[in-house]
Request: fold
Amino acid sequence: MSAETHPELTKNQALVFGSLSGAGGPLTAYAILDQLRDDGFRAPLQVYRALDKLVEYGMVHRLESLNAFVACAHTGCAAHGAAAFAICERCGDVSEFTPEKAIDLLRNWTEQQGFRLSRTTIELRGTCKACASSN
Amino acid sequence: MSAETHPELTKNQALVFGSLSGAGGPLTAYAILDQLRDDGFRAPLQVYRALDKLVEYGMVHRLESLNAFVACAHTGCAAHGAAAFAICERCGDVSEFTPEKAIDLLRNWTEQQGFRLSRTTIELRGTCKACASSN
DNA sequence: CCGAGGGCGTTACTTTATAACACAAATACC
DNA sequence: GGTATTTGTGTTATAAAGTAACGCCCTCGG
Reply:
């Protein structure tokens, strides 16, 4: 899978990705399902199956602490490998960023332990600038 | 358990903490519930309420990517503030560690953004040394 | 005494995610 | 072309994780 080109998406995958991209923020699988009722979606599995593939392709990230999914901010994130998220608990805004040095340090730790790293989850909860100042 | 670092636990909190401590690894809320049936536990809420407090006290961590909970490895983790976890997907073993430099870098990023950080989740998925070598 | 807050027990419920089964479409291979 | 294999799809049913709402019983400070 090339980092620059997206794989060919199936119809369902394209619908789910479109829904997430259009949202401009994270959506739960069931929220996506509701959005896609008019496109013929009837069951959660249709969404989860598409999401599994999109996550595998690096086009979508799963936010573990929200049980939600978000389109990758980098249109071809697979190259980056790891991403981090700052999640505002007030307004729900999510910022994706790539703290390479921090990730290097974590990877170094795993290598020292003989731990073979496959996936890194970094999620920061708090209050975004806008919400913190509008207090 | 030190009276200085730990608050007085209620009966339910002590039971849940004991269950988690004895497990030597993560447990889901429902697994804890099953373990405590003989102690009179009947409903998930009894577990979740205790867990909420234990997490608040820093004695228990929630593993977001497993929907599970684990007793803090440091008996008084509240001081450390943030922890990271390496989760073996083969044997389920979880190692807690405290990557202070990586956390500092993440905190610096949030400060630059004006993001007020309240909670940090770092979870590494992969294969532990023992499982990787017993291949 | 009493009243406010915290913890507790229970029922019912919502949200999140998978299992199992059957069919269809694309791909691979000779 | 024909056939095996994989991959995607649709559906029903069910499991797993988490919460709302209610009422009761403590206990602690006034």
Q: What stands out?
A: Chain B has five helices and five strands. The interface with chain A takes residues 64-65, 84, 86, 88-89, 95, 97, 99, 101-103, 105-106, 109-110, 113-129, 132-133 of chain B (CB under 8 Å).
